[in-house]
Every structure is written in C-alpha cells, then in structure tokens.
Specification:
The protein is built from five helices and 24 strands. The protein has a four-stranded antiparallel beta sheet with strand order 2-3-4-5, with no helix packed on it.
C-alpha cells in the first residue's frame, strides 16, 4: 500500500514527508490484532526481554524432565527453541524419578552481567525420609537465553527445612537482590476460621497452606543472606475481605489446601508490588491478587481490589484457572502486560498462555482480562505493512 502511495506522489512531482510516512505506519500497526490464548502450551509462563527478543520459559510442554524455551519479536507469535535445561547436566541435583516426573516447575531467567541465570523448582534427590514433596530451588546458568543451562552447583540454592517452589528474583534499585518463594502446603496444616468451617461442614479434617517468603540473595547466587521473612499467607479470619476469594478451592470442596504462590515482585514510584496466585492451580478458581509495601520484605498490605484476574466463565466467558503470572513490556516499553496461564473450554485441562494489558497507577493494579476477543498488538510492534 505504501509503495503504491509513494509511486503516486513521486509521479505527481511531490515529496513524501516523514509525517505522512509515520501516519501510514501507525495506522497499519493500529489495525493489527492478536487473540488469546497464544499458541503456547505452558504453565507458569515467564518472559525475558533481551537483545530485542523475547524468550518465554515455563512448566510443561516441549521438555522432558527439564525446561523448554520459546522466542518472539512481538510477544504474540512464538517459535519453539527446544529444550534448554536438562536435569542430567554435570551439576544436576534433582531426582527425575520422584513424583510428578521430578516436578520441574516454574523456571524464571534473569540476565545479569551478560550471563543468563535460571531459577527453578524440582524434587531434591537428597530425601532420607522419602517425602512425596521434597521440592527445592536450583540455579542454572547459560551464555545465551536459549541455553544450554548448567546448574551452578550440585545442590539446591538453600535448604530452609521444608519444600519450596516458585522462585522469583527482584533486583532493587540499590543493587540488592531478593528471592521470593512459596513454602509448599505439604504437611503444613494451619488453624484458621476457614479450617474451622471445613471441619464443621465435614468437608476436610484439616487445611494445609502455602505461604510466600522473601530472603536476601547473594550477589553470585550461591546462596541466601539472612533469614526468610514471611511476606504473604491466606487470611486467618473469614471476615477478612481476602478470605472469600483466597479460600474458594476449600469452599468449592476441590481440595484441602489454600495456596499463596507464583509471586512476582516489582517496584514503581518507590512502592513495592507483589502479585501472587491463590487457590488450586489445577482448578477453575486459580486467580491473581497483589499487595504493596514500602520496603522489599514488607510488611505487605493486600489490595482492596483483589482479585485482579480470575475466571470469566460465570459471566459467559470461556476462561478459567487464570494464574501464576509474570510481567512483560511492549517492544517500545510503553505498555505493561500480565503474562499468565489459563484454560478454556477448547483447551480443557491443558494450560495455555495469555497476555493481557495491565496498568499500575496510584498504587493500584488493574488487569484488562482475561480476553479472548481480538486485541491491539503490543505498542512498538513492527508489522509486515510497516516494513513494505
């Protein structure tokens, strides 16, 4: 289209001004759309942006007892890069024969001083008491975002004495790094009014809970500093405004657990935000909330507008199980996206990736989703029409 326009203007003896070219380019981009879910079957999606490319990592498809990666220029169209982490690398510390095929879950990759570090969860092979859930967090490094990633040590990052999953790393503006993780609900029964209700109703005898902790991280990622600090947990009292949505897996009698997991931390305008997921990751009620604080380890105050992302099947939609998000920015950095997994009527039990716009303003997060209708491409994406 633009070639034809240029030819016409040249034939007329006119000059195509930059303003006209820019208008044509913007219009072409504005008319281009994408629709959720994306064509990526992953749980716990995490997106890294480096060298003008996006890389996505997650739990599940594309890898055998390890992790795969996908690449994209626009956050929408993804190319499989194959398996990038293998459990049997020279420093591997996990047990691929343990429950859930070793439980290789929730990888996140960070670029630090020109190298790429993957934090992930897996079953630890050191398990003298034969625990079913013996999860720990490992760190692997690579020279390129598509790997191969090799564990930096033949052991987990640290051992808090209980199973942990869902590592997330936050790099503060003062140069300090913090690790956030979820203590697994395994063998962690907690007394609360929700537990009382479950017993009274005859639903469950006890309610196990997972809690999010934060702890300092050594600069070389060889371990942690200080003691873990409890950051988030499910509400104790049913009168707490967060109790209803964070207890749905119990009240729907799906399972005897309340989760606080899949956290992601960021900072904006000197305020710290931590997003997290609650309820059963395999159920319809998985949903996302957030809390804010004035320091990286809290105390955090949960937001009044929680949950900010949840199923829409009760409103005529087709999406459920929305959770475990990461955050990405458009190619020009002007738009913020919530990247998460969910399920639809068509995908069934398979977790697939969604991206929806999110806004952070005056201490409040809003997520415009879940969507399945056509959405504008992320700002700054160059379409085929733009490059003609």
């Amino acid at each position: 289209m633009k070639k034809s326009l240029l030819l016409f203007l040249l034939c007329a003896g006119l000059t195509l001004s930059p303003a006209i070219a820019q208008t044509a380019q913007t219009t072409a981009a504005a008319g281009a759309t994408f629709s959720n879910p994306l064509k990526v079957q992953l749980g716990d999606p995490y997106v890294l942006h480096t060298g003008g490319m996006y890389y996505m990592y997650g739990t599940g498809a594309g890898a055998d007892k390890g992790f795969a990666a996908y690449s994209s220029k626009d956050l929408v169209n993804w190319k499989a890069e194959g398996q990038v982490y293998f459990h049997d690398n020279k420093n591997g510390w996990s047990d691929p024969e343990a429950s859930w095929d070793g439980a290789y879950w929730a990888p996140e990759v960070y670029e630090v001083r020109g190298r790429f570090y993957m934090f992930y969860s897996a079953q630890w092979k050191e398990n003298p008491t034969r625990e079913v859930e013996n999860f720990r967090i490992g760190v692997a490094v690579a020279e390129k975002p598509a790997g191969p990633f090799i564990d930096i040590a033949g052991k987990p990052l640290f051992d808090p004495g209980y199973p942990i999953i869902d590592a997330n790393v936050f790099f503060d503006t003062d140069g300090k790094a913090y690790l956030y993780y979820s203590r697994a609900a395994y063998k962690h029964p907690v007394e609360s009014q929700a537990a009382d209700l479950a017993r009274e109703k005859g639903w469950f005898k006890e309610i196990e809970e997972s809690w999010v902790y934060g702890v300092g991280l050594k600069p070389d990622f060889s371990g942690v500093t200080g003691q873990p600090v409890l950051v988030l947990r499910p509400p104790v009292r049913l009168s707490d405004k967060q109790a209803e949505w964070e207890s749905r897996s119990v009240t729907a009698r799906e399972v005897n657990r309340r989760w606080t997991e899949g956290s992601v931390t960021f900072k904006k305008d000197n305020l710290y935000y931590i997003m997290y997921s609650a309820n059963h990751f395999g159920g319809q009620h998985y949903a996302i909330g957030y809390a804010t604080a004035t320091s990286p380890l809290g105390p955090y105050q949960k937001a009044a507008n929680n949950p900010v992302l949840q199923k829409n099947t009760d409103k005529g939609g087709s999406v459920s199980g929305t959770g475990h998000n990461s955050i990405a920015y458009s190619p020009d950095g002007k738009e913020m996206f919530c990247v998460y997994h969910g399920r639809t009527a068509k995908t069934g039990e398979e977790r697939v990736v969604f991206i929806d716009r999110m806004q952070v303003k005056n201490g409040k997060i809003t997520v415009s989703g879940p969507t399945t209708t056509p959405q504008k491409l992320p700002s700054g994406v160059t379409t085929a029409a733009d490059t003609d």
